[in-house]
Each structure stands twice: as C-alpha cells, then as structure tokens.
User: Fold Uracil phosphoribosyltransferase from Actinomadura macrotermitis.
Amino acid sequence: MQTLAVDHPLVAHKLTTLRDVRTDSPTFRRLADELVTLLAYEATRDVRVVEATVQTPVDSARGVQLASPKPLVVPILRAGLGMLDGMTRLLPTAEVGFLGMIRDEGSLLAQTYATRLPDDLSGRQCYVLDPMLATGGTLAAAIRLLLDRGADDVTAICLLAAPEGLAHLEKELAGSGAPIRVVTAAIDSHLNEHGYIIPGLGDAGDRLYGVV
Ligand SMILES: O=P(O)(O)OC[C@H]1O[C@H](OP(=O)(O)OP(=O)(O)O)[C@H](O)[C@@H]1O
Ligand SMILES: O=c1cc[nH]c(=O)[nH]1
Ligand SMILES: [Mg+2]
Assistant:
C-alpha cells in the first residue's frame, strides 16, 4: 500500500483553516472542496489513459484520453459527500457510486447502511472519498467491498489520516493483489480514547453539515 501526504503550502494553509474550531460550516465546506481538488491532482497520477489522435485546426495531434471503463468515484456518506464536487471537477466523466457507512461510537466498528454501486467492478479504477482515516475500519470495509466486486486499483483520498488507521489498512488489505493508495493532506499524531484523530478537526460530517 502506498501512502502520500501531499506537501504543498496551499494544502497546508487550507487544512489549517479547516481545523480551526472558529471556521463555520459554509467555509468548512468550501475548504474541503478546494482541498480535495488539490489532493485529487496527486491521487490521479496513475489514472489509466489510452493513446488518441485528434485533428487540430491546423494538423493532427497525437495525445491521450481517459481509458475505458471509466473510473468510479465513491464518496462515503455523510462526510465523503463533501468531497464529491471537488473530485468530479477533476474527473467530470467518472461514474459515481455511493456507500453510506457509520462508525458505532462505542465499538468504533463501521456499519454499512447504503450501497449504490455496480455489482461488477472488474477492471475498474476506484477513488474512495472520506475526509477522515481514523481507526481505518470504515475505509478498510469500503475498499474490501470494492475489491470483492472486482475493482483492480483503489485510491482513497482523505483530508486527515491517523498512523493507527494507516497501519490497519496495511494489515487488512496487504496481499490483495490490487494497487491500494492513500492520498491525504496530512498524517496526524494519534487517536484519542474515543477514536478521534488528534489534533484532527473534530467530526468531519458534523462540521460539514452544521451539526453543532
Ligand atoms: O477510520 P474510522 O475509525 O472508521 O473513522 C472514520 C469515519 O468516521 C467518520 O464517519 P462517521 O461514522 O462519523 O459518519 P459521518 O461520515 O456520517 O459523520 C468519518 O467520516 C469516517 O467515515
Ligand atoms: O477525528 C475523527 C475521527 C473519526 N471521524 C471523524 O469525523 N473525525
Ligand atoms: Mg464518515
């Protein structure tokens, strides 16, 4: 599994404001949207393309186009939805599927409550969107579900990741055969006893959707 913490002053600046408890939900939503576009630029370095020739107004030009089948973008509801527009801005022709998952705050285990995805993902590159990689339980379950349907290349795009969550993903998904990548704005220090990322940014879904 490859992990990339994107090192860029704009990412760092936007993340700092995103963390700030004084940042209201409209601003939080805008910053999450801007951050995912910056992260998606790095996360799509391996997006599959095929050679293509087009006619310019003056001559023919050899280039590339996105390969088929089209990539699949999977926001994990609720908080992942705040990253969807920023991702489709970069990959407008991608298909979008949905997973609704919620972490039980006692057991910290992820439950899936909604699945709107193709049954067969053979040969598909998938980009999973979830702002927070804390224990890794949610993303591990989501990526496992995609691999079980045949996905052969999965990249998770997060805003914050905890070392514990990265280690969990590594353990759960090692040996899956398909390339698994995590692209994040930062790797934070640790999880607290409630499974929250420290220093983190609080509950991403609550901050995105005005739950005070
Ligand atoms: O790595 P984990 O320990 O699984 O925690 C990360 C998950 O927790 C939060 O979701 P939550 O369950 O709070 O639901 P929400 O997205 O609707 O807020 C967050 O959006 C991630 O999906
Ligand atoms: O810090 C955390 C951990 C899990 N989920 C969140 O939204 N924030
Ligand atoms: Mg969530």
Observations:
- Residues 3 and 40 are 14 Å apart (CA to CA).
- The chain is about 30% helix and 30% strand.
- The domain at 2-48+66-209 is CATH 3.40.50.2020 (Rossmann fold).
- The helical segments are 9-19, 25-43, 84-88, 137-148, 163-173, 204-208.
